[in-house]
């Protein structure tokens, strides 16, 4: 089975990348200004997220909303996912499918969680460089989503809103998988000097 990098490299054409960049440039949703149209309860959020994904022709499990309702996701991280969905247009289905399939080797439903992190990272994210490979651009949103969810939660701990740790499904495995691909790309470049593909961007070098 092809990994995420292989899938996205095959999709990395000018047309797909242009459609993708256009889909994420709708403008940042301000929840405070749109509070009357935003679901408040966690149950409503999970249902709306599932509906948004299905409307975008994403193949999610029949029990998707129930699973994320009873899982590790609290209401606030789900709000970030929902804002990301509201903040984007129609991301090419091939990219969303690549995210789901590209993490299937990590465990059951790992790709679905990666998709959640992807949309969580799109909301209020910094500008993405247009010359980045599609794989790095997509992965930057996934990593940004993981980072922002933890950051928001840690802020809640400091303010006394939460008193327990949060553990996101597959977060470390997703980060590790990317780092392994970075190392492999570097190894391939050194072993074939004539190859001039642009190396993957290290996670710590990203500007978010």
How is this structure best described in words?
The chain has nine helices and no strands. The chain is mostly helical and 208 residues long. It has one domain. The chain is globular and about 50 Å long.
Keywords:
single chain; 208 residues
How can the largest sheet be summarized? none
Number of helices: 9
Number of domains: 1
Kindly provide the radius of gyration, computed on alpha-carbon positions and rounded to a whole number of angstroms.
17 Å
How would you sum up the global shape?
Answer: globular
What's the helical proportion of residues?
A: 55-70%
Q: Structural class per helix/strand content?
A: mainly alpha
Beta content: under 5%
| CA-CA gap between termini | 31 Å
Number of distinct beta strands: 0
Average pLDDT metric: 80
N to C succession of SSEs: HHHHHHHHH
Q: Secondary-structure blueprint of this entry?
A:
Layout: H1 4-11, H2 14-23, H3 42-55, H4 64-70, H5 75-86, H6 93-102, H7 110-122, H8 134-158, H9 171-191
Helix pairs in contact: 1-6, 3-4, 3-5, 5-7, 5-8, 6-7, 7-8
Entry summary:
Helices cover 58% and strands 0% of the residues. By secondary structure, the protein is mainly α. It has one domain (4-205).
């Amino acid at each position: 089975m092809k990994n995420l990098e292989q899938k996205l490299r095959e999709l990395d054409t000018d047309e797909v990348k242009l459609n993708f960049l256009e889909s994420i440039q709708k403008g940042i949703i301000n929840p405070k200004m749109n509070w009357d149209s935003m679901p408040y309860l966690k149950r409503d959020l999970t249902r709306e997220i599932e509906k948004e994904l299905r409307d975008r022709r994403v193949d999610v499990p029949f029990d998707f909303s129930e699973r994320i309702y009873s899982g590790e996701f609290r209401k606030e991280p789900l709000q970030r996912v929902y804002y990301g969905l509201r903040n984007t247009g129609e991301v090419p289905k091939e990219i969303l499918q690549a995210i789901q399939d590209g993490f299937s080797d990590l465990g059951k439903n790992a790709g679905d969680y990666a998709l959640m992190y992807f949309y969580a990272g799109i909301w209020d994210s910094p500008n993405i460089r247009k010359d980045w490979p599609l794989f790095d651009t997509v992965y930057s949103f996934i990593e940004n989503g993981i980072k922002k969810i933890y950051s928001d939660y840690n802020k809640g701990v400091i303010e006394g809103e939460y008193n327990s740790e949060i553990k996101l499904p597959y977060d470390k495995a997703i980060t590790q998988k990317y780092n392994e691909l970075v190392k492999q790309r570097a190894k391939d470049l050194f072993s074939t000097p004539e190859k001039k593909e642009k190396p993957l961007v290290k996670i710590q070098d990203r500007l978010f």
